[in-house]
Amino acid sequence: MNQMKEKILSGMLMDEECSLTLAELSRACAMHAEWVMELVEEGIIEPYGRDLSQWRFTPQALYRARTVRNLQRDLGVNLSGAALALELLEEIEALRARLRRFEPGC
């Protein structure tokens, strides 16, 4: 007999003025704080705040961190490769947005 498996989706709705602490960002990505600190060192995300205990992250940092996590998990790329892939993905999205402005009927 086939058993139905339910996939539970969880998410977080954030506005642009919302920010996350290091612990909250780590939890939202299901990764250790050390991994988040590696993202900062690599220049993938940038916290604001003077020291580690005051670091805050934007919703864009959450998006970038989760994308890197997925690239590492799904494709097995290292952090530098994930950073490059992230830049290319963002550039593609920016180009698509520019193209949409020139499409008729928009």
| Assigned CATH class | Mainly Alpha
- State the strand order across the main sheet: 1-2
Structural class per helix/strand content?
mainly alpha
Mean pLDDT, nearest integer? 87
Question: What would your notes on this structure say?
Answer:
It is a single chain. This protein is mainly alpha-helical. The chain has one domain: Multidrug-efflux Transporter Regulator, Chain: A, Domain 2 (Orthogonal Bundle), CATH 1.10.1660. It is 56% helix and 4% strand. It has four helices and two strands; from the N terminus they run E-H-H-E-H-H. The protein has a two-stranded antiparallel ribbon with strand order 1-2. It starts with 19 loop residues before the first strand and ends with a helix. Mean pLDDT is 87; it is low at 6-10.
Short précis:
The protein is mostly helical and 106 residues long. It is built from four helices and two strands; from the N terminus they run E-H-H-E-H-H. The longest helix has 24 residues, at 79-102.
Descriptive terms for the model:
Multidrug-efflux Transporter Regulator, Chain: A, Domain 2; 106 residues; mainly alpha; globular; two-stranded antiparallel ribbon
What's the arrangement of secondary structure elements?
Blueprint: E1 20-21, H1 22-29, H2 33-42, E2 56-57, H3 59-75, H4 79-102
Antiparallel strand pairs: 1-2
Helix pairs in contact: 3-4
